[in-house]
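Can anyone check this?
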Amino acid sequence: MVEDAKSQVEFVSQEDFKAVLESEDAQFYLIDCSEKNEFDTSCIQGAINIPRGLIEFKIGNEAPKRRQDVYIYCSNGERSALAASVLPYLKYTSVYVIESGFDTWQDKYPKLVEHHPKRGATQTKAPAAPSGGCGG
């Protein structure tokens, strides 16, 4: 299933996503589809947690603008490929999986990792990297 999902989704390199994350005018959703206990430990700055098993049920509330870019990741890219493969069926038009997942991201860009994130209202844009937080 994972290999089939990977063949159906579009990947973005970590470098290209970092440029999006640091852009001041980019509007996007950043979805971490890891389990809540993984997300509660650390995430990419600005991420919204929607576990893979709940993506079909929660994405509409957490990311209501279906034409806005959606970037999705998990620890290694497998769950995120599965999650991303269903989003076009839910009318999301621009969905990208961040290559290699969070494990590689946190090694490459430790300053763009938020530890023990706290979330309130849904965010529609990840904050610029220099802000030091992701809406908590």
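Reply from J.R.: I decoded it. The chain has one domain: 2-119.
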